[in-house]
Structure prediction request, 123 residues.
Amino acid sequence: GGSTAPLAMAIPGYGIAEQVFVGGFGNFLQVYNYVITARILLSWFPQAQSIGVLQPVFAITDPYLNLFRGLIPPIFGLDLSPILAFFTLNVLTSTTASIGMEMKEQKVTVAGMKRRFFGMRLK
Prediction:
């Protein structure tokens, strides 16, 4: 008799390394969002820039925030460029999350069973 061993199918490009990268990048963006929030709150205290412990916060966030300064003019002396910076960061976070969801949706199971592939149920 023939063997009835189930056959499996794999989708190339969705290995553990890609999942770790997408998850790690999503976590990085979330932490970076918190650091930028802290940086914006610290901007209300000008003396905070002279505190040595806080220098890494300024060093990490200022290059990113400087990309958006000047794109939105200050209104009544308020720099509104962090709004655009947050928007861009949120778009990146949403994109990363959707890529992660796409990876989870494309799980393929043993042939002959119902499986989910590209959002469709196959028999």
Observations:
- The beta strands are 115-117, 120-122.
